[in-house]
Each structure stands twice: as structure tokens, then as C-alpha cells.
């Protein structure tokens, strides 16, 4: 049994978790009842006179991974700054059986986005006296970056700003340059062989599943944090997305790092956190 360690300023009871079923039917009814898991980090009540806390919607990457109720220095950083966080394990995450995993391929950009947004709404409903529904931000990397750029476009009047780390923005163009070509085919619901070439039909399908297809719907500020040596999600994904946002007059910043996919070098990770916090603070609505 591991020893429990307390984090100064973050009481153990600030971790809450629950599951819910998305009331929007899955395109395949077989997967409609698979539960969605949510973890909330933050207080459940506020001291008298305290302002409501801004909320960060933080989906995981993978997409077939999971977020667990465990210590995260990145999460602790934001919580100590006064933010609350909602982590949503959308359908496709691990921990809910094979059907839970199989529910996502072929539906990325649809059911995962819906689950994460509904998880955020569930969190606000549960903690409506604590979190500020007018100050909800987006933070995610890799497939989590795919999700937050989708959420920015699909719900342009709900979220305030985005910080995306090495986001997948265009499955089609990524399919021939990533070190995991099979990932783009499988998540798009297509069969993969090492000899597979993305033809017009596959490229069209991948385009319509990708955040780049909704670029004209993005209205909120977007910060892109990109590793120049990323082979998993090549930097061209984020750089092109940045250029397309600039061309549309969207408030945008691009930070390029001498790092690879995780952006986990000590100096890089710290710079990502500090710049993201400053970005969010800049766009907080007055209470």
C-alpha cells in the first residue's frame, strides 16, 4: 500500500468522480449505454465572499488511454492558481471493456467531442455554486488537442480560450507523415495495411472528421504549443492550423519548442504551463 501524500493547498476531498450516460444516441446503438467517466478537481463549496472558480475542460490524448484519480503536477499547478478542472473519459477510453474501446473508431470528432462537452456541462451542473460557467477554458494535447480544437469550433459561444499542445488538426494530411500511419486509418474507421494509400474517399472522410473542416467556426483565442521534433503529430499540423486562424483574424499565438510529442522537457513543460495560464488569465470574463 502506497503512502498517502498531501499536496499543500489541494485537500484530498477536492477530487470527485462519477459516471453518466450521454443522452445523445451513439450512431451505433450498441454503444449508446456505455458510461462516460468524469473526474473533477476543485472544491465542492466556496468560502463566504469567494468568487466562483474558472473551469478547465481537459480531455486526454490517445484516444485509447484514460485519466485517473492520481496526482498530476500539471493539474496541481492550475488548481493552485484558482482554477477547477474537469477530466472526462469519453467513450473510447480504457476501463469500460472492449465495447468501450470500439465505440470510438469511425466516430472521432463526433461522439468523443459530445462526451467531453456533456461531461463539462455535468460538472457545471453539479458544482454550479463553485465553478463559473462564463469562464470555461480548453486545455489538451495530441488527441486531446484534436478534441479541444473541435470543441472550440462546435461550441464557439461556450468556451473562452484554448491552449492546445501538438494537436491533431487534419487526419488526412497527417496520414502520410506521422510515425503511426495506422492510427489515422483506424480512428477514421478504415482498414489499414502497410501498403495502404489514402485515396480521395479516405481523405474526404478524414477531412470531415477533423478540426480543420470547422476552422471557419472558431471564434475564440487559440494558443498552439508545438514540438518541432514531434514525429507522432508532426508540427505541420499545428503550424498550418495557426496560419489558417491568422488568415481569419482569430487571436492566436504559436509557441515552437525544441522538443518532441509530450513536450515534457523540464524547461518546455514549465513554459507550456506558464504561457497557458497567462493565456487563460488574459481572457477571463469579469465576474
From TrEMBL:
<keyword id="KW-0720">Serine protease</keyword>
<dbReference type="GO" id="GO:0006508">
    <property type="term" value="P:proteolysis"/>
</dbReference>
<dbReference type="InterPro" id="IPR029058">
    <property type="entry name" value="AB_hydrolase_fold"/>
</dbReference>
<dbReference type="GO" id="GO:0004252">
    <property type="term" value="F:serine-type endopeptidase activity"/>
</dbReference>
<keyword id="KW-0378">Hydrolase</keyword>
<keyword id="KW-0645">Protease</keyword>
<dbReference type="InterPro" id="IPR002470">
    <property type="entry name" value="Peptidase_S9A"/>
</dbReference>
<dbReference type="Pfam" id="PF00326">
    <property type="entry name" value="Peptidase_S9"/>
</dbReference>
<dbReference type="InterPro" id="IPR001375">
    <property type="entry name" value="Peptidase_S9_cat"/>
</dbReference>
<comment type="similarity">
    <text>Belongs to the peptidase S9A family.</text>
</comment>
<protein>
    <recommendedName>
        <fullName>Prolyl endopeptidase</fullName>
        <ecNumber>3.4.21.-</ecNumber>
    </recommendedName>
</protein>
<feature type="domain" description="Peptidase S9 prolyl oligopeptidase catalytic">
    <location>
        <begin position="75"/>
        <end position="282"/>
    </location>
</feature>
Amino acid at each position: 500500500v502506497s503512502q498517502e501524500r498531501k499536496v499543500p493547498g489541494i485537500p484530498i476531498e477536492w477530487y470527485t468522480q462519477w459516471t453518466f450516460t450521454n443522452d445523445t444516441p451513439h450512431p451505433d446503438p450498441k454503444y449508446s449505454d456505455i458510461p462516460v467517466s468524469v473526474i473533477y478537481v476543485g472544491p465542492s463549496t466556496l468560502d463566504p465572499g469567494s468568487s466562483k472558480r474558472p473551469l478547465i475542460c481537459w480531455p486526454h490524448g490517445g484516444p485509447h488511454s484514460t485519466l485517473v484519480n492520481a496526482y498530476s503536477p500539471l493539474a496541481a499547478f492550475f488548481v493552485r492558481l484558482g482554477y477547477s478542472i474537469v477530466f472526462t473519459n469519453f467513450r473510447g477510453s480504457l476501463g469500460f471493456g472492449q465495447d468501450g474501446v470500439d465505440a470510438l473508431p469511425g466516430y472521432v470528432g463526433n461522439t468523443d467531442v459530445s462526451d467531453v462537452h456533456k461531461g463539462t456541462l455535468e460538472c457545471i451542473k453539479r458544482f454550479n455554486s463553485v465553478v463559473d460557467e462564463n469562464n470555461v477554458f480548453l486545455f489538451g494535447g495530441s488527441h486531446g488537442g484534436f478534441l479541444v480544437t473541435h470543441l472550440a469550433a462546435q461550441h464557439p459561444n461556450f468556451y473562452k480560450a484554448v491552449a492546445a499542445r501538438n494537436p491533431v488538426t487534419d487526419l488526412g494530411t497527417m496520414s502520410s507523415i506521422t510515425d503511426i500511419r495506422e492510427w489515422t486509418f483506424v480512428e477514421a474507421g478504415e482498414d489499414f495495411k502497410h501498403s495502404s494509400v489514402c485515396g480521395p474517399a479516405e481523405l474526404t472522410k478524414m477531412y470531415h472528421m477533423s478540426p480543420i473542416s470547422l476552422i471557419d467556426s472558431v471564434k475564440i483565442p487559440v494558443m498552439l504549443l508545438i514540438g518541432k521534433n514531434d514525429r507522432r503529430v508532426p508540427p505541420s499540423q499545428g503550424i498550418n492550423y495557426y496560419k489558417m486562424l491568422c488568415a481569419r483574424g482569430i487571436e492566436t499565438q504559436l509557441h515552437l519548442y525544441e522538443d518532441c510529442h509530450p513536450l515534457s522537457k523540464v524547461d518546455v513543460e514549465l513554459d507550456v504551463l506558464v504561457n497557458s495560464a497567462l493565456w487563460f488569465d488574459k481572457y477571463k470574463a469579469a465576474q
